Amino acid sequence: DAGITQSPRHKVTETGTPVTLRCHQTENHRYMYWYRQDPGHGLRLIHYSYGVKDTDKGEVSDGYSVSRSKTEDFLLTLESATSSQTSVYFCAISDGLAGLGEQFFGPGTRLTVL
Amino acid sequence: AQSVTQPDIHITVSEGASLELRCNYSYGATPYLFWYVQSPGQGLQLLLKYFSGDTLVQGIKGFEAEFKRSQSSFNLRKPSVHWSDAAEYFCAVGGNAGNMLTFGGGTRLMVKP
């Protein structure tokens, strides 16, 4: 299995509080991604990174920000959590060789916003 | 814009029966296609992928998929389902510069004994 960890694995928070989720990889892959998974929607891309300090928005980026100061870490921040951000969040990585697109996924973080 | 449709939200099959999960995609260029499986409470595991060449690809756990360009489809098949195959299955399409994937909504497979 690809070396990807996510922390925390579970979190319950209140509306309006800031939340940061961490993704850590040991594969030295260039690309990292944050998705959210909701019933009936599959996985939707929030933000992605194509290198240190290089990030871009995905399909559902409103209310989220990201940072990547090191190759191995990709942080997802909810500045002011809302109930609509209750979801399961997955991090993924890709080495991007020849644009093949294969991604490897972390175990997920279940976030509940009350 | 690229998109993926998995028409079947739920499928129930008997153990030992054959399985086909449907996937239709929309993509402007040559697509890279993937099937992932997610067991309850777990992350996604890659079952198989298609980049080019032979349109019938073999994957792990006895799964295969066939790319049909004329039908924009990439259906997943297995000749004999095992109870351990019960999971959610996701089809995805990619191939752009950012290696981004677009996922379908998923198909939940239940296996009857």
Can you offer a commentary on this structure?
With 114 residues, chain A is an all-beta fold. Chain A is 0% helix and 57% strand. Chain A contains no helices and 11 strands. In chain A, strands 2, 4, 5, 6, 9, 10 and 11 form a 7-stranded mixed beta sheet that branches. Chain A has a 4-stranded antiparallel beta sheet with strand order 1-3-8-7, with no helix packed on it. Chain A is globular. Chain B is mostly beta strands and 113 residues long. In chain B, 0% of the residues lie in helices and 51% in strands. Chain B has no helices and 12 strands. Chain B has strands spanning 3-5, 10-14, 19-21, 24-26, 32-38, 44-50, 56-58, 64-68, 73-78, 87-94, 102-103, 107-112. In chain B, the strands form 3 sheets. In chain B, strands 2, 5, 6, 10, 11 and 12 form a 6-stranded mixed beta sheet that branches. A 4-stranded antiparallel beta sheet of chain B has the order 3-9-8-7, with no helix packed on it. In chain B, strands 1-4 form a two-stranded antiparallel sheet. Chain B starts with a strand and ends with a strand.
Task: Set down the secondary structure blueprint.
The complex is a heterodimer of chains A (114) and B (113).
Chain A: E1 4-7, E2 10-13, E3 19-25, E4 31-38, E5 42-51, E6 54-57, E7 64-70, E8 73-78, E9 87-94, E10 104-105, E11 109-113
Parallel strand pairs in A: 2-11
Antiparallel strand pairs in A: 1-3, 3-8, 4-5, 4-9, 5-6, 7-8, 9-10, 9-11
Chain B: E1 3-5, E2 10-14, E3 19-21, E4 24-26, E5 32-38, E6 44-50, E7 56-58, E8 64-68, E9 73-78, E10 87-94, E11 102-103, E12 107-112
